[in-house]
TrEMBL record:
Membrane-spanning residues: 18-37, 49-73, 321-342, 348-368
Protein name according to UniProt: Phospholipid/glycerol acyltransferase domain-containing protein
Keyword Membrane tagged: yes
Phospholipid/glycerol acyltransferase domain boundaries: 90-214
SMART domains in the record: PlsC
UniProt organism field: Meloidogyne enterolobii (Root-knot nematode worm)
SUPFAM superfamilies from the UniProt entry: Glycerol-3-phosphate (1)-acyltransferase (SSF69593)
Protein family: Belongs to the 1-acyl-sn-glycerol-3-phosphate acyltransferase family.
Length: 378
């Protein structure tokens, strides 16, 4: 049985949440206007170099929020399984228990191989791109931001998979096939769908949306940018914190987060659409059993038929030192940017100009990330 969904917080938790949110907003906003915006012309002049630089900068900036959730909120991350090969492009599929799954997954990637945080891209709901600072950085980082309507998202998926392929990098695209987090409303909709279609009502999962998964995988195959599928299962050992607002406004955060990773060669998957749909449905049925055992046994166990490379990826002393060094660099950079902002003339006007430019391009191109993708087309 799952732990309860947390609905209340203490004054200390809310204070921690305020400190975390304030620092992340300031750092991401100032980093965007002082680093990312000046780099934008490079997206046209040399798209591959732009992508390399921005992937590196934003990837290592992500060490700041992920380290803070570990240090400030005491989150413990356990990563078991096959790991992820940084040298081979992949599609990662994960159950979407809460809106924070992807945040903690960056902590997991850091334990597996730090460079993975520079090559992971996430399929997220499109509204996040309008968040000042953090949302702009997601757009600069070429996350695949969707409206969750296949008719409108189809062209965007094609555009971005082609963009990833043109960049000649080994990207790892994280997809939540369920389409949304397992909140009460989504669970009710999933159960209604299951009842209507004579399917099992899952206790720990939502029924996956197969159409988007199949289309995305087939497009990645066509562009030759997928070698592996990684099936990732996330479970929470102590409490469920459902949304980002619970973290940033109330300071609520789970303490015990577990990831189980299975590496599957794409060559072993079916080739036709109908069989791929069945494969995903079968995978979700197995994932339900895995989660049932996880909550029964208080942890993940090695699964039958998995590879001999099953590992426990831990935060080594070397990774801890690198983590501290990276956080110190970004804190110093944020302080320097803040000094520039308050001491130099016309910084308010520069910030307003940057804001108007980004928002204008978002409106005109239906997303700043679409603007960057189209700049790379010759």
């Amino acid at each position: 049985m799952e732990p309860p969904v947390t609905v209340s917080s203490t004054n200390l938790q809310r204070f921690k949440g305020l400190c975390f949110t304030t620092l992340i907003i300031i750092s991401s906003f100032l980093g965007t206007i002082y680093v990312l915006i000046p780099l934008t012309p490079l997206a046209y002049l040399n798209p591959k170099l732009f992508r390399l630089i921005v992937d590196f900068l934003i990837g290592y900036w992500l060490v700041l929020p992920t380290s803070l959730v570990e240090w400030l909120f005491g989150v413990r991350i356990q990563v078991l399984g096959d790991g992820i090969d940084p040298k081979r492009p992949s599609l990662i599929i994960m159950n979407h228990r809460t809106c924070l799954d992807w945040l903690f997954f960056w902590c997991a990637l850091w334990r597996i191989e730090p460079s993975l945080i520079t090559t992971e891209k996430i399929v997220l709901k499109g509204e996040v791109k309008y968040l000042p600072g953090a949302g702009w950085a997601m757009a600069y980082n070429a996350f695949l931001l969707l409206d969750r309507n296949f008719l409108t998202d189809k062209a965007r998926i094609e555009t971005f998979v082609e963009y990833y392929a043109r960049m000649d990098r080994k990207y790892h695209l994280l997809l939540f096939p369920e389409g949304t987090d397992k909140c009460a409303r989504a669970t009710e909709r999933s159960n209604s769908f299951a009842k209507k279609n004579d399917l099992v009502q899952y206790e720990y999962l939502l029924h996956p949306r197969t159409l988007g998964f199949v289309f995305l995988l087939q497009k990645m195959r066509k562009e030759k940018c997928v070698d592996y599928i990684y099936d990732v299962t996330v479970g929470y050992g102590d409490q469920i914190v459902q949304s980002e607002t619970d973290l940033v406004l109330r300071g609520m955060c789970p303490k015990d987060v577990h990831y189980l990773i299975q590496q599957i060669p794409d060559s072993s998957l079916p080739k036709d659409d109908e069989q791929l749909e069945k494969w995903l449905k079968d995978k979700w049925a197995k994932k339900e059993k895995i989660l049932h055992n996880f909550y029964k046994e208080k942890g993940f166990r090695r699964q039958n038929g998995w590879s001999s490379q099953f590992k426990n990826f831990q935060l080594t002393s070397k990774l801890k030192l690198l983590q501290i060094a990276v956080v110190c660099i970004w804190l110093a950079a944020t302080y320097f940017w803040l000094y520039l902002f308050v001491s130099l003339n016309h910084q308010i006007w520069y910030s307003l100009l940057a804001l108007v430019s980004i928002v204008g391009l978002q409106i005109y191109y239906n997303g700043f990330e679409m603007f960057l993708a189209r700049l790379s087309i010759r």
